[in-house]
Design brief:
alpha+beta, Beta-lactamase, 8 helices
């Protein structure tokens, strides 16, 4: 009898081992990404594999022979960026580069992780899809493209709700937990599975709730045949408010104060791309000005 129990235990252990091995093999990319994720997650983006090159030629911009901004002001801004540990700092004025600084080991051809700045890129692609007629309206149901949503309360979610981060989808977020929906969305390879299974938490349009699954759903609306990551980190800050007064459609807009709520902007038409660890691109149309900063967590 004892030998029989030992034999059964060995079979159970073998079955468990084979099941675990099969799971690891099936999710090998997830395991590799999770185990190689670097501490300097912005500037060491090479851990993310596979990478796919986006078609198109690099944008070539001239350098201004005579900058229309005082050199002292540009030098002061560049010094400030350096003090904050920036890997790259670039200023464009009237379509030309007027300031460009890089940290040692970094350069204009270096890849960086844009973090949630990529969300705004998704919003811009939605705008292009509207202009080209691939999407009929921001108010059309997302379920027209995401068929798993068509048979339940998620059928009321529109593309506008996704852009406004007001879809009412469940926000499976936990600090430093790679095994939530958000963690798998970042490290895993099957984002359509995550988007298809996410449940509705409340009626769409109820409130603003920062949830990266909204953006990933938009990626699948635009290109269901691919699984590009829509711009999220497994540790993105969760913010829930009755209304998003300072956000446009995945694009923060000026409402009298800077992003840190301390000092007002000098111009009324400031918009910016916003990513974790203070990845920033500020755009000021009235001044024909663009300021970009990327790097690890900014020093205080």
């Amino acid at each position: 009898m004892k030998r029989r129990w030992i034999r059964w235990l060995l079979w159970i252990a073998l079955a468990a081992f084979l099941a675990l091995a099969a799971l690891v093999a099936f999710e090998w990319t997830y395991v590799v990404r999770l185990s190689t994720y670097p501490k300097d997650e912005v500037t060491r983006s090479g851990w993310y594999r596979p990478l796919e090159r986006v078609a198109g030629a690099p944008l070539a911009l001239p350098e201004a022979a005579a900058p229309g901004i005082a050199p002292e002001a540009l030098a002061q801004a560049a010094q400030y960026a350096e003090e904050k540990g920036s890997a790259a700092f670039v200023v464009l004025h009237r379509g030309a580069i007027v300031a460009e600084r890089y940290a040692p080991g970094h350069g204009p051809d270096a890849r960086t992780n844009p973090m949630s700045m990529a969300k705004t890129a998704v919003a811009l692609l939605v705008g292009i899809a509207l202009a080209e007629g691939a999407l009929g309206s921001l108010d059309e149901p997302a379920a027209r493209h995401l068929h798993e949503w068509s048979g339940d309360e998620r059928s009321a979610i529109t593309i506008r709700h996704l852009l406004q981060m007001a879809s009412g989808l469940a926000n499976d977020y936990a600090e430093e937990d790679p095994f939530t929906d958000m963690g798998y969305l970042y490290f895993g390879t099957d984002s359509p599975w995550i988007v298809g299974r996410v449940r509705a938490h409340e009626p769409p349009g109820t409130r603003f709730d920062y949830n990266s699954i909204n953006t990933q759903a938009l990626v699948l609306v635009l290109d269901p045949a691919r699984a590009a990551r829509g711009g999220s980190s497994p540790r993105s800050t969760r913010r829930a408010r009755p209304a998003a007064r300072r956000r446009g459609l995945l694009l923060p807009v000026r409402h009298g104060s800077r992003l840190d709520h301390r000092e007002p902007f000098e111009a009324d038409d400031v918009v910016w791309l916003d990513g974790r660890h203070k990845q920033r691109v500020y755009v000021v149309p009235s001044r024909e000005l663009v300021v970009a900063r990327v790097g690890e967590q900014a020093r205080k």
